Amino acid sequence: MMATKPDLTIHLGDVYYVGDAPEIQQNCFGMPTNGFQGVKWPHGSQGSFSLNGNHEMYANGKPYFTILLPTLGMRENADGQVASFFCLETAQWRIVAIDTAYNSVGIPILSQIPVINSIPCIGGDCHLEEALLTWLRTVVKPKANPKATLLLSHHQYFTAFKDQAYTKPAKQLMEFFQGQEVVWIWGHEHRLGIYNKFSKDGGITVYGRCLGHGGMPVDVGTPDSTKAPLKFYDPRTHALDDKTEVGQNGFVTATIKGGVLTLDYRDVENKQLLVEQFTAGPGGSLTCTFRNPDGVLQPPPKEPS
Fold this sequence. Notes:
By secondary structure, the chain is of the alpha/beta class. It has a single domain (2-233), classed as Purple Acid Phosphatase, chain A, domain 2 (4-Layer Sandwich). Helices cover 12% and strands 26% of the residues. The protein is built from six helices and 16 strands. The chain has helices at residues 21-27, 54-57, 62-68, 130-140, 168-172, 174-177, and strands at residues 8-11, 47-50, 73-74, 86-89, 93-97, 148-152, 182-186, 192-195, 206-211, 230-233, 238-239, 245-246, 250-257, 260-267, 272-280, 286-291. Strand 15 and strand 16 (286-291) form a beta hairpin.
């Protein structure tokens, strides 16, 4: 990843397993703790940011906010990353990172059980805090000054896999992006997924991109495109030492040049998998083109007729 010499690096959240201080020291600062060799999260030449994930919230978020964030942000900012949401802007593009994790943790233990965690008041619904919405209204002002927009979050808006969809944030964002298409990159699910333009349950219309395959073993599963319009996914697998079959890890580099956002998807061996370009138009509109160089990423299997 660092071979690309990025200006900024952005982590989409989840410091395993509970985001406590020793785990942040081990997985972000490269300190050997808990009997394991540490790894250091790489910073870009201009700085680095990290989103809040549900695993950080298992420790009530305190180590994330008080230990990790002060080490991040733009290099010239001595205060570090001051919040779990932020905005980066160019003349034609706006990158908006939101915190879906703050309200992602429901009732302990019960909220981790599939099906049960979808019951209201049991699992968290990932709704956006009022402070974040006020910041969007009064500081970012995307409705008064629309631009081509790249959204970043930890949790998925929708999915073609077995995981849960979290549509509440997308509904709240209708206040700011109604009638505008945006690119939305999320993590949480341990896989890579590229979706066709889609909206769900009255939420905003987005080009959804799941990039949850950065570090943990990647989940293997068969997609169901009746849930969400999956365009490409990575079906490749390999075996861990214990013979468990897992998918391929990877990352994406985002480059903004004028009105064009280029997303270059790579696997852990730095093999190029897909290149997308989103071109900004009037009022934040988007035109999307892509190149799938070697056909590694595949469309989902067709449903039997």
